[in-house]
Write a structure and sequence with these properties.
The longest helix is centred in the N-terminal third of the chain and has 21 residues. The N terminus is likely disordered. By secondary structure, this protein is α/β, with parallel strands linked by helices. The strands form two sheets. The protein has a five-stranded parallel β-sheet with strand order 7-6-5-8-9, covered by helices on one side. The relative contact order is 0.15. Helix 1 packs across helix 11, helix 2 crosses helix 11 and helix 6 packs across helix 11. Bound molecules: N-carbamoyl-L-aspartate (NCD). The site of N-carbamoyl-L-aspartate has 12 residues, from helix 2 and helix 7.
């Protein structure tokens, strides 16, 4: 039987493939957040917590990754599970002999309990989840599409700071056209009332108009701005992103727009406020001045990364039904 991968989660995450933030709703997110809290407490209290013992998770990464790959790997291992790891299967697996991705997925679904896949082509994770495999699929990023697990950790980060995900004013900056983390996170914030998002990007990299229209229908307020002077002073978070060089066909175009918007101490001084947080999914390539790193509001090298591991731990346990 083919699995319906766009199936809403409705609070029951067990055995679901995680492909898009669109599958979630506030109740399911609450389930995830309370599981994160539970896991954190268990680990801090007892140190050892191994609900994933005797489970195997496959990591199949067709695109480069440092954080997502290692945080999934460490999340599995810290919960007592094992991993089958393929970074760059195009060189290290039978794909090099011409095996189709469908066959590769069938193979790993026989060897493991869960498959985590990253692929440069938008829609691949969805396709994988539609194969009717006996193992669920978690997308770790599909081209310029979505990056659901990054958005889940980012939502948890915002939630744990402000105690809510409604009535939030936030700023997204950088590559909003190709940046998949932004696509997923905006979809998640659109579930909650009275959120207002400012989108700062070069005109060439603005959010795809179809997506913007779809999101606006949910009631979220979106304001596109093209100048740093138009950043309002009351944002609770700034979410900066790099311009995605690898998505450009013409590198001259990339050179034209890269680092148009850079966070500097001056910008934070002028447009920030004391309570805000500064986030970035990483890697950064010049769009945040390193002098910002020691600012207590900057959490991209600390809390945001730590939340990535806890969020993935919780998601893995829920999908595998092991809590
Ligand atoms: C992002 C990604 O891969 O989409 N990184 C990540 O997973 N933390 C962001 C990026 O590559 O710019």
């Amino acid at each position: 039987m083919k699995k319906d991968c766009s199936k809403k989660i409705n609070g029951e995450i067990k055995n679901k493939s995680i492909i898009s933030l669109e599958q979630f709703d506030p109740k399911s997110l609450q389930t995830l957040f309370s599981t994160i809290e539970k896991i954190k407490k268990r680990i801090h209290k007892k140190g050892n917590f191994t609900p994933l013992l005797r489970t195997v998770t496959t990591l199949l990464f067709f695109e480069p990754s440092s954080r997502t790959f290692s945080s999934f790997s460490v999340a599995v291992k810290r919960l007592g599970g094992s991993t089958l790891e393929y970074q760059n299967p195009l060189q290290t697996s039978s794909v090099v002999k011409g095996e189709t991705i469908e066959d590769t997925l069938h193979v790993f679904s026989n060897y493991s309990d869960l498959i985590i896949i990253r692929h440069p082509e938008k829609g691949t994770a969805q396709k994988a989840a539609s194969l009717g495999l006996k193992t669920p699929i978690i997308s770790a990023g599909d081209g310029i599409g979505e990056h659901p697990t990054q958005a889940l950790m980012d939502m948890y980060t915002i939630y744990s700071h402000f105690g809510k995900l409604n009535n939030i004013c936030g700023l997204f900056a950088g590559d909003l056209l190709y940046g998949r983390t932004v696509h997923s996170l905006i979809k998640g914030l659109a579930f909650y009332p009275n959120n207002h998002l400012y989108l700062l990007s070069p005109k060439e990299l603005r959010l795809e108009p179809g997506l913007k229209k779809e999101l606006s229908k949910s009631g979220i307020k979106i304001t596109e701005i093209y100048d740093e002077n138009d950043i309002p002073n009351n944002c609770q978070f700034w979410y900066w992103t790099r311009v995605q060089k690898e998505r450009f066909n013409d590198l001259k175009q990339y050179e034209k727009v890269k680092n148009r918007f850079v966070i500097t101490p001056r910008l934070v001084q002028k447009k920030g406020n004391n309570k805000m947080i500064i986030m970035h999914p990483l890697p950064r390539v010049g769009e945040i001045d390193t002098r910002i790193d020691s600012d207590p509001r900057a959490i991209y090298l600390t809390e945001q990364l730590q939340n990535g591991v806890y969020t993935r731990m919780a998601l893995l346990s829920l999908v595998l039904g092991k809590l």
